[in-house]
């Protein structure tokens, strides 16, 4: 098994999954809209009010999250009113739940007031608090420092030329 971290300087970040995810949900308002969607918010005005953003920002973020496939617009019509749209999580959006839970869990631990978190998410069936942990495919809990970076199918290595310094982990070329 080759540890790619030893050749970290040779990686291209042109297709970094973290950077690409942040392009979609990397603003405060986008993350809070997703939080609200998981809490059941569906209507435009409710998103704007609950997130505390103006209508123009709400419209822009909802449009971006819809275009990215995390939310879908579904028409509804109240009696005597024009057709309007509500926003619902898609499968892609529902797959974002662990991210929201992890952010809330981190915030509860490291950013909450002295009184503690304002609300606690629990499992409807058993009442236990929700928590996110990192596990390998075999179910073992994995902590920071217990991982190895292996080549994925999308890895792009940048060519090194003679003028580029060797990575710190590699021996310097003999002169």
TrEMBL record:
InterPro entries: HTH_HxlR, WH-like_DNA-bd_sf, WH_DNA-bd_sf
Residue ranges constituting the HTH hxlR-type domain according to the UniProt record: 16-115
SUPFAM superfamilies assigned: Winged helix' DNA-binding domain (SSF46785)
UniProt xrefs under Pfam families: HxlR
UniProt key word Transcription: yes
Annotated segments matching region Disordered: 143-175
Signal peptide region: none
Keywords: DNA-binding, Transcription, Transcription regulation
Protein name, per record: Helix-turn-helix transcriptional regulator
